[in-house]
C-alpha cells in the first residue's frame, strides 16, 4: 500500500487555560478517500481539523505530527503555512451564512482565492470562476459572479464556499459540519455534490460531523473521537454493522430513527376523532404576513392553516426553513400579529383578550427555545431562573416557591445543589433541562417547544427527549413540538403537520405520516434524510440528483 | 439610492424646524439684553424703548419668530445689532476660514486613524500596540488649549518653522504652499482628539472583523493576513467608522471655537463668541442654525455613504 495523503500521528492540542483539547489523535486519509471524523461536542474533532490547516485559536499549542503528502506541516511558519492553505489543503465550514464576506461579490472572492496562489487574473480568472461555479452546480454562473452573498440562499452560499475551497485544486478538503446548518433536502444535495467532486477530481475529503446519517451516506472510513482520543476506526460498513467500542454502539443507538416503510403502521387512524372536548390549541384558517403593504412586498409566512391540538397530545410541526413552523408556534402565544383567521388556546380567542385575562391565558402556556445558552440570563442563578415566573405572577410564599424549584429540578433530574449555579457552569443538555423546568414552573396546559434539542449532541438529545416524553406523560400538558429533524419529531409527537411555504401539505398521526406519506413533498423530505445505514446509500444516491432538479 | 435619501429627508426637516425654534427661544432666555448693551448704562427709559421697538423686540415671541422665518425664507439673514453690516457677509467671511480648518482637520484625523489602526492590526505587535495606545490616550486626555500652546511653543518659537497664528495673507488658493504652513498647526491641534477617538474605534472594529468567520474562510484559502485586513476587513469596518466620523464632525465644529481663539484664526468661532457676549440675536441665531444644518447634512451624507459601502442596504436580497 502506498503512503497515505494525510497522516496525522499522535496529535495533541493543549490550551493555556483548561478546556476540551485533543489528547492523542491519529488519522490517515488516502488519496481519493472520504474519511469521517465523528464525535460529540468537546471530542476534539474540529480542533483536529484546525490543527491540520494551521488555524488553531490563539493560545492553543499542537504537538505530534501532521504530514501531507510526506511533508510535515506542524511547526511551519505563518508564511510557509499560507502557501499550503488553499493550495494543498482547503476547508469548508459549518455556517455558510457568515463564511463569506458580505460586502464583496462572489466573483471578487473567487478571484481573490485564485490570486492568493499566484494563479490566473483578469479575464482568465473570470473564466475559471465560472468554471468553479458550474462545478458546484450553481445556476447562471456568469450572472452570479456579480452577486453578493446575501442574495443567495443558504445552500447556494455553501456551494460558493465549496467553490472557493476548490479554486486551487487542493489535494485534501476538510469539511467541518458542512451540512449541519442546512435544510435536509439541501443537505442531501450538498452531500451528493461532495461525492461527485471526489469521484470527478479525486480530492480526498476529511469530513467532520456528528450526524451518523451523513457518515453512512458519504464516508469510506470512520474515525470515532471521544474526549480527545480515538476510540474506534473502521470502514464505514464494518463500523455500522459491527461497532466494537461501547461508545460507538451508544452513539449509534442514540440516533433517532424514522419508521421503515413496511412497519405495518397503515392500520393507524389518521384524523383524531373529535372528542367534543375543548381543544388545547386551535388554528382556524390563520394567516400571517411579513413585510409592509406600503412598500408593496407582502410575504405570507403562514397561509390559511387550520390545525387542532387535543389536550394532553403532542403536535409535531415539521418543515424546512421558511416553512412557517416557528411563526405558528409564536402565534400560540399571540406574539405575532394575525393577518387573518383565529387562534384559540383552551377555547379562548387570543385576539379578544386584553389585560388581566390575556395575562392569565399566557400563564397557562410556556415556551422552550432552541438555544438554552441564549434563553437563560447569564446573571441569574439556576434557582432564580426557575423561580422567576413564580415571582412575576406572585405565586405562593417564599418558602413555597423554593419548594417548587426543588421539585422542578428533581423532575428534570438535576441535583438540588444546582440552584446556586450559573448557566455557564452547566453543559448544553443541563441548560436545556433547566429551560424545561422553567417552562413547567406554572403548570402550563400548553407548551411550545421550538427546536428544543437541535443544539444538543445525539446522546444528550436522546436523554432530553426521553425526559420530555416522560414529563409530558406524567403532567399531561399539550405540546406543539417544532423541529426540522423528522426523526426527532417521530419519537415524541402523536400527530404531525408537514409545512411548506406557510401551508400544511399533510397532517395526520405521526406513525402514518412518516410510515406511509400521502403527499409527494413529505416523501421527498423523508427520502432526503440521510439514513444511518451505509447499505442504503447506494440505492438512494442517483435519485438525489433528480430530486434536486424537481425541488428547484 | 435616491429613494433611500428621500425617506430620510422629512425627519431632517423636522429636526431643523424644531432646532430653529429652540435656538430662537433659547437666545432670548439667556440673561442679558441687547438693548442695554446697545444703549449703554446712561440711556433713558424712553431711549431704551425706542431701540427696543426699532429692533422689533417689543413684539410677542411668536410674532418675532414668524417674522424671522419669513426673513430666512427670502434668504435675508438680517442685520447685526452691534458689529453692523449684513449678517450674511459677516458669516460668509468667517465660514470660509472655519470650513477650510475643520475639513483639513477631518482629513488629517481620518488619515491618521486609517494608518494607525491598519498598522496596529496588521503588525499585531505588542510594542506597536503599546506605543499607539499611549499616544492615543495622550491625544484624548490633553485639552486643546494645552496642545495648542505646546504646538506653538515647539514649532513657532523653539523651532521657528511655522507661523504661530493668523490666516495666510494671500488666501488659500493663490499660494497653497504658504496656506498649508498657516493651516498645519491649527488643523493638527483640532484633529488630535477626533483622530485619537476615531483610531481607537477603527482599531477595535478591525479586530472584531478579524475574528469573523469570513476571515477564517479567507485564511483557510491561503490569503495573507495583511491582504485580508486591507481588502476585506477594512471594507467591512468602514461603514460604522463613517458613522462615528459623522458624529466626530460635531465635536470638531465645537472644538474649532477654541482652536481659532488660540491661533487667532478669524473664523466663525470668534464671531460666535463676540455675538453671544453682545447678545447680538440675529447673528447668534444664524450661526447656531448654521451649525445645526451642517450637522444634519453630515448625518444625511453619513447614511448615504453607509448605504453605498454596504451592498446589503444598497441591493435588497433576492435569494432565500
Automatic annotation (TrEMBL), chain A:
Q: Which GO terms describe its molecular function?
A: ATP binding
Query: Which regions form coiled coils?
Result: none
Subcellular locations according to the entry: Cell membrane
Protein's membrane topology: Peripheral membrane protein
Which residue ranges does the record annotate as region Disordered? Answer: 532-552
Q: One Pfam family name from the record?
A: oligo_HPY
- Which SUPFAM superfamilies does the UniProt record give? P-loop containing nucleoside triphosphate hydrolases
Span of domain ABC transporter: 6-252, 281-526
Keyword terms? ATP-binding, Cell membrane, Membrane, Nucleotide-binding, Transport
Would you identify the family this protein belongs to, as annotated?
Belongs to the ABC transporter superfamily.
Return the protein name. ABC transporter ATP-binding protein
Species name: Nocardioides mangrovi
From TrEMBL, chain B:
Organism whose genome encodes this protein: Nocardioides mangrovi
Q: Where in the cell is it found?
A: Cell membrane
Which SUPFAM superfamilies does the record cross-reference, listed alphabetically? Answer: MetI-like
Start and end residues of each ABC transmembrane type-1 domain: 95-302
Q: Which family is it part of?
A: Belongs to the binding-protein-dependent transport system permease family.
Descriptive protein name: ABC transporter permease
This protein's UniProt keywords:
Cell membrane, Membrane, Transmembrane, Transmembrane helix, Transport
> Membrane topology for this entry?
Multi-pass membrane protein
Is Plastid included in the keywords of this UniProt record?
Answer: no
The record ties this protein, via PROSITE patterns, to: ABC_TM1
What transmembrane ranges does the database entry give?
A: 12-30, 99-123, 135-162, 182-202, 237-263, 283-305
Q: Which Pfam families match?
A: BPD_transp_1, BPD_transp_1_N
**Metal-binding as a keyword?**
no
* Record-linked InterPro entries: BPD_transp_1_N (IPR045621), MetI-like (IPR000515), MetI-like_sf (IPR035906)
Amino acid at each position: 500500500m502506498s503512503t497515505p495523503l494525510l497522516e496525522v500521528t499522535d496529535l495533541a492540542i493543549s490550551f493555556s487555560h483548561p478546556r476540551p483539547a485533543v489528547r492523542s489523535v491519529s488519522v490517515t486519509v488516502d488519496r481519493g478517500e472520504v474519511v469521517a471524523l465523528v464525535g460529540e461536542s468537546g471530542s476534539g474533532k474540529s480542533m483536529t481539523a484546525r490543527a491540520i490547516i494551521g488555524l488553531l485559536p490563539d493560545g492553543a499549542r499542537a504537538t505530534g505530527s501532521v504530514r501531507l503528502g510526506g511533508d510535515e506541516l506542524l511547526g511551519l511558519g505563518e508564511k510557509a503555512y499560507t502557501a499550503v492553505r488553499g493550495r494543498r489543503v482547503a476547508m469548508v465550514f459549518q455556517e455558510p451564512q457568515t463564511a463569506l464576506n458580505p460586502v464583496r461579490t462572489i466573483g471578487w472572492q473567487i478571484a481573490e482565492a485564485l490570486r492568493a496562489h499566484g494563479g490566473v487574473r483578469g479575464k482568465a480568472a473570470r473564466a475559471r470562476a465560472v468554471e468553479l461555479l458550474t462545478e458546484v452546480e450553481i445556476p447562471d454562473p456568469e450572472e452570479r459572479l456579480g452577486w453578493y452573498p446575501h442574495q443567495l440562499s443558504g445552500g447556494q452560499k455553501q456551494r460558493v464556499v465549496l467553490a472557493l475551497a476548490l479554486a486551487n485544486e487542493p489535494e485534501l478538503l476538510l469539511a467541518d459540519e458542512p451540512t449541519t446548518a442546512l435544510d435536509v433536502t439541501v443537505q442531501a444535495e450538498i452531500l451528493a455534490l461532495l461525492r461527485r467532486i471526489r469521484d470527478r477530481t479525486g480530492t480526498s475529503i476529511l469530513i467532520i460531523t456528528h450526524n451518523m446519517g451523513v457518515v453512512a451516506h458519504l464516508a469510506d472510513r470512520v474515525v470515532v473521537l471521544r474526549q480527545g482520543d480515538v476510540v474506534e476506526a473502521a470502514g464505514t460498513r464494518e463500523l455500522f454493522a459491527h461497532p466494537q467500542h461501547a461508545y460507538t454502539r451508544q452513539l449509534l443507538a442514540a440516533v433517532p430513527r424514522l419508521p421503515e416503510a413496511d412497519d405495518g403502521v397503515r392500520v393507524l387512524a389518521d384524523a383524531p376523532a373529535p372528542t367534543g372536548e375543548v381543544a388545547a390549541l386551535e388554528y382556524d384558517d390563520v394567516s400571517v404576513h411579513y413585510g409592509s403593504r406600503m412598500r408593496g412586498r407582502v410575504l405570507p409566512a403562514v397561509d390559511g392553516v387550520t390545525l387542532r391540538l387535543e389536550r394532553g397530545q403532542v403536535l409535531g410541526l415539521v418543515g424546512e426553513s421558511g416553512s412557517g413552523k416557528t411563526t405558528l408556534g409564536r402565534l400560540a402565544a399571540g406574539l405575532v400579529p394575525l393577518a387573518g383567521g383565529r387562534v384559540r388556546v383552551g377555547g379562548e380567542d387570543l385576539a379578544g383578550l386584553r389585560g388581566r385575562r390575556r395575562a392569565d391565558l399566557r400563564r397557562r402556556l410556556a415556551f422552550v427555545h432552541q438555544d438554552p445558552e441564549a434563553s437563560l440570563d447569564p446573571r441569574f442563578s439556576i434557582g432564580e431562573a426557575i423561580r422567576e415566573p413564580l415571582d412575576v405572577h406572585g405565586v405562593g410564599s417564599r418558602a413555597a416557591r423554593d419548594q417548587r424549584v426543588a421539585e422542578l429540578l428533581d423532575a428534570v433530574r438535576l441535583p438540588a445543589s444546582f440552584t446556586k449555579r450559573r448557566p455557564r457552569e452547566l453543559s448544553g443538555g443541563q441548560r436545556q433541562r433547566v429551560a424545561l423546568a422553567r417552562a413547567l414552573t406554572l403548570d402550563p396546559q400548553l407548551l411550545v417547544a421550538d427546536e428544543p434539542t437541535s443544539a444538543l449532541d445525539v446522546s444528550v438529545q436522546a436523554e432530553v427527549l426521553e425526559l420530555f416524553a416522560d414529563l409530558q406523560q406524567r403532567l399531561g400538558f399539550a405540546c406543539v413540538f417544532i423541529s426540522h429533524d423528522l426523526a426527532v419529531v417521530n419519537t415524541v409527537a402523536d400527530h404531525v403537520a408537514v409545512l411548506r411555504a406557510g401551508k400544511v401539505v399533510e397532517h395526520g398521526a405521526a406513525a402514518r405520516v412518516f410510515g406511509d406519506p400521502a403527499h409527494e413533498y413529505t416523501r421527498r423530505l423523508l427520502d432526503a434524510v440521510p439514513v444511518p445505514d451505509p447499505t442504503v446509500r447506494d440505492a438512494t444516491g442517483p435519485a438525489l440528483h433528480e430530486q434536486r432538479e424537481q425541488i428547484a | 439610492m435616491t429613494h433611500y435619501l428621500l425617506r430620510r429627508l422629512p425627519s431632517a426637516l423636522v429636526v431643523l424646524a424644531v432646532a430653529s425654534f429652540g435656538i430662537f427661544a433659547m437666545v432670548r432666555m439667556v440673561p442679558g439684553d441687547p438693548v442695554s448693551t446697545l444703549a449703554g448704562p446712561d440711556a433713558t427709559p424712553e431711549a431704551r424703548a425706542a431701540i427696543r421697538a426699532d429692533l422689533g423686540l417689543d413684539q410677542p415671541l411668536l410674532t418675532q419668530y414668524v417674522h424671522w422665518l419669513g426673513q430666512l425664507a427670502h434668504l435675508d439673514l438680517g442685520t447685526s445689532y452691534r458689529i453692523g453690516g449684513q449678517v450674511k457677509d459677516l458669516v460668509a467671511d468667517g465660514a470660509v476660514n472655519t470650513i477650510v480648518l475643520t475639513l483639513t482637520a477631518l482629513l488629517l484625523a481620518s488619515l491618521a486613524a486609517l494608518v494607525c489602526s491598519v498598522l496596529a492590526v496588521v503588525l499585531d505587535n505588542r510594542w506597536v500596540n503599546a506605543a499607539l495606545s499611549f499616544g492615543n490616550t495622550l491625544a484624548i486626555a490633553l485639552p486643546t488649549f494645552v496642545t495648542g500652546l505646546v504646538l506653538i511653543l515647539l514649532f513657532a518659537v523653539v523651532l521657528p518653522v511655522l507661523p504661530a497664528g493668523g490666516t495666510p495673507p494671500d488666501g488659500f488658493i493663490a499660494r497653497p504652499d504658504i496656506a498649508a504652513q498657516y493651516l498645519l498647526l491649527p488643523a493638527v491641534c483640532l484633529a488630535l482628539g477626533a483622530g485619537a477617538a476615531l483610531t481607537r474605534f477603527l482599531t477595535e472594529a478591525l479586530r472584531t472583523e478579524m475574528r469573523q468567520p469570513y476571515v477564517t474562510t479567507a485564511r483557510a484559502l491561503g490569503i495573507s493576513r495583511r491582504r485580508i485586513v486591507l481588502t476585506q476587513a477594512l471594507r467591512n469596518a468602514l461603514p460604522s467608522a463613517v458613522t462615528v466620523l459623522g458624529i466626530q464632525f460635531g465635536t470638531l465644529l465645537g472644538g474649532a471655537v477654541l482652536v481659532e481663539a488660540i491661533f487667532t484664526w478669524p473664523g466663525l468661532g470668534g464671531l460666535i463668541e463676540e455675538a453671544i457676549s453682545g447678545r447680538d440675536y440675529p447673528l447668534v441665531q444664524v450661526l447656531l442654525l448654521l451649525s445645526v444644518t451642517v450637522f444634519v447634512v453630515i448625518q444625511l451624507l453619513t447614511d448615504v455613504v453607509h448605504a453605498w459601502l454596504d451592498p446589503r442596504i444598497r441591493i435588497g436580497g433576492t435569494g432565500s
